[in-house]
Amino acid sequence: MREEWGELESKGGELIYEVNLEISPRQKAAFDDWLSGHVQALLEQPGFLSARILRNDEQAEDRWARRTVSYRLRDRQALDDYIAGPAEAMRADGLCRFGGSMRASRRTLRLVAEISALGNCENCHGVLFDRHCQRCGQKIDAPHPPPA
User: Which Pfam families does this entry report, sorted A to Z (predicted)?
Assistant: First the structure.
């Protein structure tokens, strides 16, 4: 599997855009109400495929709540287009609403391997979920166990 990592990276492939957020205790409820709609708006951007909103159960030292949004993007170009286009306005919306009650940091992660308990597709090596390959859609008769 490791020899395929370089192949995945060289293709440009999927990218994870991670936004780590901290919010003051007094704004937490309003922030959480706003966040889902904000994420949905980002998913309307070309190349944004999905998102997960995660709660970190460990508070910051100053008791601020932590959230992470993990966006799955088609490729680096999708992120570059977003940053060159609507990113500034989208970020300004959060700052306007929550100002100093919100802190954000961002990072990008390149997908080098994805492993499933069901194994990987024999056709394209994509991750298997249920009875279909996530990447190519190939139907499988029975899940293949991951290699030992």
Answer: DUF4286
